[in-house]
Structures are given as C-alpha cells and as structure tokens.
Automatic annotation (TrEMBL):
This is Nuclear nucleic acid-binding protein C1D. Monomer and homodimer. One of its GO terms (biological process) is maturation of 5.8S rRNA. GO terms for cellular component: cytoplasm; exosome (RNase complex); nucleolus; nucleoplasm; transcription repressor complex. PANTHER family: NUCLEAR NUCLEIC ACID-BINDING PROTEIN C1D (PTHR15341:SF3), SUN-COR STEROID HORMONE RECEPTOR CO-REPRESSOR (PTHR15341). It comes from the Eukaryota. Belongs to the C1D family. Keywords: Cytoplasm, DNA-binding, Nucleus, RNA-binding, rRNA processing. It is found in: Cytoplasm; Nucleus, Nucleolus. Plays a role in the recruitment of the exosome to pre-rRNA to mediate the 3'-5' end processing of the 5.8S rRNA. The keyword Nucleus applies. One of its GO terms (molecular function) is DNA binding. Signal peptide: none annotated.
Amino acid sequence: MASEEINEDYPAEIHEYLSTFENSIGAVDEMLKTMMSVSRNELLQKLDPLEQAKVDLVSAYTLNSMFWVYLATQGVNPKEHPVKQELERIRVYMNRVKEIADKKKAGKLDRGAASRFVKNALWEPKPKNVSKVANKGKSKN
C-alpha cells in the first residue's frame, strides 16, 4: 500500500484510513467467500446446538452491522433506523448464549462430597467420660 499514489479526490490525511478500510473490506470479502463455499446445512450438522446458535447469531450480527455501515454511507442515520433495535436484540441473545456456555463450563457441586468434607473438617469435642476412662487406663500400665 505504501507504493500507491495518493488520489487527489480526497485529503491526504485520510489516505491511511482509507487504505486500512480497503484491506478490511478485502478481508471481509475473503471470509464471506469461505463461509459461502460450504452449505449452511453442512456446516451446522457438524456443530452442537450451542455452537449452531453462536454461528447463527454471529452471522445475523455481521449482516446487520454491514447494513449499518451501508446506511451510514448513504447518509441515513443508522441510530434512528430499526437496524439499531435489531442489533440490540441480537446482542441480548448473544449474552444469553454466553451465559449458557459459561454455565456448562462451571464446575458441578457434588453435595455428598462437600457434606463429608465439611463434616470431617469440623472440630468435635470428645465426651468427658470417655477421656477420663482413657486416661485412667493409661496411668495404670
């Protein structure tokens, strides 16, 4: 990109930003080509339901984000467009899926083992008459 000439149609200060944007668009294009090369059914068959939900949510979020950018390039304020509510709705579902995934990763409590651990860790005083009998027996021998 450094060898490219700066176009006189726009200010020189934004050339680097435009170059970065062009690279990003190219990367998105490559990802879309890769994603479109495999059928959706083929892709989803290989995944568990939670992973399927993640793929669907990321796809929907990406598509709506790209539409947001399109609206901005057309001079429409995307903050006043229904796409904003759609992005928020998808974000809520993404958080719900994340919570479910975190619950799966969380350790399970074995109540029986925890109960035994606590019971054995607690100090229990010995009955008084047992200790006297034990002391008398030891002193005689």
